[in-house]
Amino acid sequence: MISGKYKKTVFLLLLIILLVTIVIAGSLGSARISFPDVVRIIIEPITPMSIENSNIKETSRIIIWKIRLPRIILTVIAGMGLGVSGAVFQGIFRNPMANPYILGISSGAAFGVTLGMTMGLQITFLGIGAIPISAFIGAISASVIVYLISGGGRDILPLLLSGIAMGFLLSALMSLLMYFNRSQLENIVYWTMGSFNAASWQKVIITAPVILSGSFFIIIFARDLNLMVLGEDSANSLGISVKKSRLIFLLVSTFITASAVAVSGVIGFVGLIVPHAMRIITGPDHRTLIPYSMFGGAILLLTSDTLARTIIAPTEIPVGIVTSLLGAPFFLFLLNRMRNTK
């Protein structure tokens, strides 16, 4: 853990890394655009530089603004949400293995998508198609059912076990639907691996307010999360209603995760390893851990997505595969580090 006087410096470094990663991601792809041109295209709307006098190709502007930038921004926002949710769930459950999908969120989203595809739903909302809507509704519905079954989340263990049981049940129902609707099998499996290839500005506009406002809410009340980690008796003695606070944190984190899953599919390891990695830098204080996890999640997911769409271009690998390939070895390293420090 770094000392307090260096934390702001490291946070600034994370921000710089994120900005550089955004520009690099914008320059890479089937059509290569130079690093300086990407910067110029992005800052053109806020600079007095004349577009007519610029030597940048119009096709490059179209590629950046219509294709790559919406995908990059959506990936960054989803990564932020998964990073924050991971830190919150690990804090609430006081379990380093907890992740944003622990309440059956991923299984609910996957089941919602499977049901939507097999039924041929054609609904839209503010330009968002049936698949993201089905994923969001499925994720929220599964979480609510888990919460009610567990007795309102009064105790951690029933909540955790209910989430695991719901995950198995929905996975079985999803497999059953896939078995009887094999024509949709490829589309369903591809969605469950995660992808941002359908990114758009409409999805950014709808997803960003939910994830960013929820993340900032958690940052504001991170002190309550610190007290909850101390234990229910200690938190109650310090004036914190643990049951009420737990419910609020669970609801906000669930909405954040469901919003991310709706536009990206199921992406593992981001919410699991990012809080671990950031905890090495910041320590257990959620007032700094949450913001660091926001930027850490964004950097990891954007790096993974950039690799997914460029490493064997023009073929695109599902981003969930890349995050697992990057995350699993790193997680094993963290486990080994924790064992050696005991």
Helices and strands in order:
Blueprint: H1 4-27, H2 35-43, H3 58-93, H4 105-119, H5 130-149, H6 156-180, H7 185-192, H8 201-220, H9 222-229, H10 232-237, H11 242-264, H12 270-282, H13 286-310, H14 319-341
Structural class: mainly alpha
What is the H-and-E element order?
HHHHHHHHHHHHHH
Cα separation of the termini:
16 Å
- Kindly state the mean pLDDT as a whole number? 84
Number of helices: 14
How would you sum up the global shape? globular
The top-level CATH class is Mainly Alpha
CATH fold name: ABC transporter involved in vitamin B12 uptake, BtuC
What's the CATH architecture name? Answer: Orthogonal Bundle
Report low-confidence residues grouped into runs of 5 or more: none
Strand content: under 5%
Name the helicity range. Answer: over 70%
What does this structure look like?
The chain has one domain: ABC transporter involved in vitamin B12 uptake, BtuC (Orthogonal Bundle), CATH 1.10.3470.10. It is built from 14 helices and no strands. The chain has helices at residues 4-27, 35-43, 58-93, 105-119, 130-149, 156-180, 185-192, 201-220, 222-229, 232-237, 242-264, 270-282, 286-310, 319-341. Helix 4 (105-119) packs parallel to helix 6 and helix 4 (105-119) runs antiparallel to helix 7 (185-192). It is globular and about 65 Å long.
